[in-house]
Design a protein that fits this description.
mainly alpha; single chain
Length: 101
């Protein structure tokens, strides 16, 4: 167990989705080029990248869920150790001063 990170608070969560820029003029120009190439009979070997937004979102959520579980586990362990320390302190106080009562 890492004692140095025992009292470290979990970091805040950040939404890390980068927005993509949409250019309607560029899209229209590419569509015209595609139609012109189809009319002329030219083959279009240009495979464009189609982003996998759903897959990225799902994998990001799985990563965040793992981080949440790790933070919850750290919190539980910390609470357990604090409870043990308090119980030992109470036990020491009760049996040290039992002759007073």
């Amino acid at each position: 167990m890492h004692m140095a990170k025992f009292f470290e608070k979990p970091k805040h969560r950040v939404f890390n989705m980068k927005p993509t820029f949409w250019d309607p003029d560029k899209e229209e120009r590419e569509e015209r080029e595609k139609r012109a190439k189809a009319k002329l009979g030219l083959k279009d070997d240009d495979d464009r990248f189609i982003p996998n937004v759903k897959g990225k979102f799902t994998s990001e959520m799985h990563d965040r869920f793992g981080m949440q579980q790790a933070a919850r586990r750290k919190s539980t362990v910390r609470l357990f150790f604090i409870l043990i320390i308090l119980l030992l302190a109470a036990y020491y106080i009760v049996f040290k001063y039992v002759d007073i009562f």
